[in-house]
Amino acid sequence: MFQGMANVENPAQRIYRVSEITSNIKLLLESSFPYIRVEGEISNFRPSSTGHYYFTLKDSDAVLSAVLFRNRIPQLTFKPQDGMRVVASGQISVYPQRGSYQLICETLERSGEGDILAMLEERKRKLAAEGLFDSSRKKPLPLFPRRIAVVTSPTGAAIRDILQVLRRRNAGIDIVILPTPVQGEGADLSIAAQIQRANLFRLGEVIIVGRGGGSLEDLLPFSSEAVVRAIAASEIPVISAVGHEIDTSLADLAADIRAPTPSAAAEIVSKGREELLHRVVSLKESLMQEMDHRIEKIRVLLRQFSPENMERLMKNILQPYYFRLDDAKERFILEFRKKLDDYKHRLELASTQLHASSPYEVLKKGYSIVRAKSSGQILRSAESTSPGETLSIQFYQGAADATVEKIIPTQNF
Question: What is the pTM of this model?
Answer without folding.
Answer: 0.49
